[in-house]
Every structure is written in structure tokens, then in C-alpha cells.
Design brief:
CATH topology: Alpha-Beta Plaits
Order of helices and strands: EEEHEEH
Distance between the termini: 48 Å
Structural class: alpha+beta
Helix content: 25-40%
Number of strands: 5
Number of domains: 1
CATH architecture: 2-Layer Sandwich
Low-confidence stretches: none
Largest sheet: 3 strands, antiparallel
Organism: Salinivibrio costicola subsp. alcaliphilus
InterPro entries: DUF406, UPF0234-like_C
Protein name: DUF406 family protein
CATH class: Alpha Beta
Strand content: 15-25%
Family: Belongs to the UPF0381 family.
Strand order of the largest sheet: 3-5-4
Length: 98
Amino acid sequence: MKENQTDACDACGVSAEIGYIISEGDDVAEVTIQANSPEAIAARFEQYLDLAKSINPAVKHDFDSQHIKNDALTIKMQFECSAEKLIFELRSRSLNNA
């Protein structure tokens, strides 16, 4: 009989099955950047790109300043594995709040 392994968070008590959070093939992070100008969006993207490259220098992205509309742009960043994407998403929270 196969037993599912669950771990509970010590801080909040929430539990999840290991493997649910990190899924194979889930290696693309989407980031929406909003700013007052295309230049500000490009500068903000550089911050996200620097963070992504600190996790994996081979990260790929689809940033194109020609696609900026209404002072916002959604970009995709592809990592080599799901764990790198998860690390990026956790670390980028500090950029989202800045």
C-alpha cells in the first residue's frame, strides 16, 4: 500500500503533499510589471531578470518592449526546472512589494 507523505507548516498548520507544490514541467513563471512609462517597465524588468539570473544564468524570457500596452507588460521566464521557478517566485515577492 502506498502512503502519501504530507508535511504541516509549523507556522500556520497548513499541510500539502510533497510533489504538489513542485510539479515536473512547471518551469515557466509569469510576471506582470506595471509602471508609469515603458522605460520604467524596462528598468523594473531588469530587476526581475537580475534576480532570475542569480538563480539560473540560463533563464529564458520573452520580454519585448514593443509589447508594452497601457503601462503594463506580462512576461514569461523559463527556468530549467520547477524548483528554480519556485525559488524565483518566492524571492520575487520582495520586488513585488517594493
